[in-house]
Structures are given as structure tokens and as C-alpha cells.
Amino acid sequence: DSNPKRYRTAAVCALQVACLLEMLTPLAPSLFLPLASLSNIGKNIAWLASSATRAQMHSSMTVGNNLGDITAKSTSQSIASGLAGTALGAMISPFIGSDPVALIALFVPLSALSVYFSYLS
User: Which of 11, 12, 32 is nearest to 22 (CA)?
Assistant: First the structure.
């Protein structure tokens, strides 16, 4: 609880690693189940770590008794950014194709940006 931002950044990094592992599964079809299982475990651990820090970060932004408002607005922003990312991905996917190597080449810089902006927030 002393440094929630550090734990939040670590959780975002763990999530990105788990997503990368998930993207590698088509490159090793014989290892699909172990890789997919490890990826899902990693994503769940990252989500749990991120959720644990969220309460502390929200409480630091409260003025008076408005924790519910802060949490609602944060959740709305998360949902909106997730939907925007999904829409953008759907729009550019015809241009990228389904080649795992091309997808990973695009994922790595976007993942780095995600970690960077999470750190800034």
C-alpha cells in the first residue's frame, strides 16, 4: 500500500507479457494448451494486482466522501478506452492480416506505449 503506482505498473507489465505469450501460441501449436494456460494465469494475476492497487489510488483522489464518484468515472474511462481500442483494432485488422509475426511486431510498440501511459497516469 505504500507505493501503489509501482505495483500498478508492475501489473501492467505482467499483463503485457501474458498477452505476448498468448500471441505466441500460434507459433507453437503443439504447446498451445500450456502456453494458453500460462497466459491466462498471468493475465488473471495481473488483473488481481491491478485491482488491488486501484482502491488505494482512488482513495488518494477523493475530496470529502466521493470515492464512489471517482470509482465510477475511472471505470467509465477504462470501458471507453477499451472499446476505442477494440474499434481501432477492428478497423486496422484488414490491413495487418493474421500473420502472428506481424501482429507481434505491432503489439510490442503498442504494449510499450501502454506501460508508459499507465506509468504516467
Answer: 32
SS3 at position 3:
coil
C-alpha cell at 60: 488518494
Distances (CA, A) of 31 to 27, 43, 80, 86, 99: 9, 18, 35, 27, 18
Tens digit of pLDDT per residue, the chain (121 long)?
678 888 889 999 999 999 999 999 999 999 999 999 999 999 999 999 888 888 888 888 888 888 889 889 988 998 999 999 999 989 988 988 888 888 899 999 999 999 998 888 7
DSSP, res 65: S
